[in-house]
Structures are given as C-alpha cells and as structure tokens.
Amino acid sequence: MPRPRVLMERIGLGESPRWHDGRLWFSDWVAHRILALGPDGEAEVMAEVDAFPFSIDWLPDGPMLITAGRELLRREPDGSLVAHVDLRRLSDHGWNEIVVDGRGFTYVNNVGFDLMGGEDPEPGLIAVVTPDGRARQVADGLAFPNGMAVTPDGSTLIVAESYEGRLTAFDIDADGGLSNRRVWADLGEGGDGICLDADGAVWFPKLRACVRVAEGGEILETIELDRFCFACMLGGEDGTTLFMNVAEWNGPEGIFKDPRTGQVLAVEAPAPHAGRP
Questions:
Q1: Domain limits at 192?
Q2: pLDDT tens track for 228-267
Q3: What digits encode the pLDDT tens for the residues 122-177?
C-alpha cells in the first residue's frame, strides 16, 4: 500500500475517529476536546469534555453522543453538552468506546478497572442503551474491550479485546441484547478503534501497524507505522480513505509526560467504508 500522509500533528492522544458530515471527527484525550478536521486541513473544536477517556458516535436522527466518565452525554444543536444517560449504576469505572446501530441502540463498553490509577486488570463489559433511554449490561468477561463496529445488515457487533489481541463477535438480538459470542479473528496482539469495509474486512490497530483482516484471521493488508496506532476509520468523499490516529505510547503515565506526539494519518484503502461507525 502507499505510504500514509500526515494530515495533522501535535495532537495529544487521538481516539474514536468518525467520518461525519464531510469531516473527520475525533477525541483528543489529552486536550479534553472533540475536533473536526476538514478537507482543508483546518481543525475546529466541537466540544470540550471534562473526562478521561471519552469517545463519540451519532444517533440515527443526528445528535452526537459522548462517553464521559460514568455518563453518556448528548451534544445539543447549540453545542452544549447535556446528560443523556447516567451509567454509574452499571459500573464504578469510566466508560470507554461507543457505537450506535441503525435502529438507535447504543453500545458502550467499560474496561472494568482504573487503568490510569494503576489498578490490576479486571474483566470488562458491554452495555446497551435502548432508544427510549434504558441501559442494561449485555456482555461481560471481556479482556479490555475497546473499539466496536456493527455490520451493514445490523446483525453483528464486533469488539476488539486489547488484552487478548482478538476480535470477538456477537449476534445482535431484536431487543438490543447480545448472544452467540465467538472469536471473529485472533491477531495475538493489538486491538483498539476498528472499522469495517464493504468487503467484510476489519481494519485493526496492531501496535505499530494497522492491518486489514478477514473473518478467521487472515491479514489482507499491513500498514507499518513509526508509532502506535490507536484507532482507524474509513471515510472521505467515496469512503475509501483510511484515517489513523497514531501517537507514541510509553504506558498510561506517558500520555501526559510527552503529550504532543499524536498525528492523523491518511492512506487510500482497497474497499470503502461499510457498517457503523
């Protein structure tokens, strides 16, 4: 594949990239900001979030949702942030990644321990928030659940388990529940923000690389990088541009010691975006 080009530098830690309304939106965890990067290379601050970590996605009717600590926030038309759902009864820890399916079921995951506080790892979980605002746990026993994606037909949720380096799939039930858990692909290492393409492959951050993997684990493409890949997203005018959030990684404490190594990279991909996010 061609060499990725640098679209933006001096980011803290970019995460949760989403192609929305003609721009690449993403979270900068260090700056506590949500940015939207336009085709002209200009980045606009879309929200400031007093939480760590935080991730974003959109409901089908438009409002952006943000995982922020123990809450799920909603961005109003005037740009203000309001509480959408309080998730603290499901976990004492902050919530991580988010994906919304085409029916408006919102999946959020929780790693199950305080990474920044140095707690020993514990199994994580996934919760669903139904369109009428009710939240419940739908999966547990996950090894640091991270990025998630929903297939184009809305039938399957795929989640990256970072501490096992694998992709795990669930069937999505009519009521938003998850069932039929299975290993979708075992990569051995890596796993963070993921996305799907129209050929049914997943783009998967694999430490200092981003790989395109088929169900079963065959690696179809590899993009070697000079720093860690934290998340990726297909977008652009025709959906075939792969955007990657990359940064140096020296453990959780290193995020704030050398906080401006993050970049947004872009490269043309062999198949366009599909599914959600």
A1: 5-274
A2: 999 999 999 999 999 999 999 876 666 666 668 999 999 9
A3: 999 999 999 999 999 999 999 999 999 999 999 999 999 999 999 999 999 999 99
Q: 257's torsion region: left (phi>0), alpha (psi -120 to 50) or beta?
A: alpha
Q: In a 10 Å sphere around its CB, with 0-12 CB exposed, 13-18 middle and 19+ buried, how is residue 249 labelled?
A: middle
> What's the structural domain count of the chain?
1
Quick check: bond before 252 cis, omega within 30?
no
DSSP collapsed to 3 states, 102-139 = CCCCEEEEECCCCCCCCCCCCCEEEEEECCCCCEEEEE
Amino acid at 132: D
User: What's the angle, vertex CA 214, arms to CA 209 and CA 218, rounded to 5?
Assistant: 70
CA dist., res. 152 & res. 199, Å (int): 11
- CATH number of the domain at 231, please: 2.120.10.30
> What is the C-alpha to C-alpha distance for residues 152 and 168, in angstroms, rounded to an integer?
17
Q: Quick one: tokens of 74?
A: 């909603």
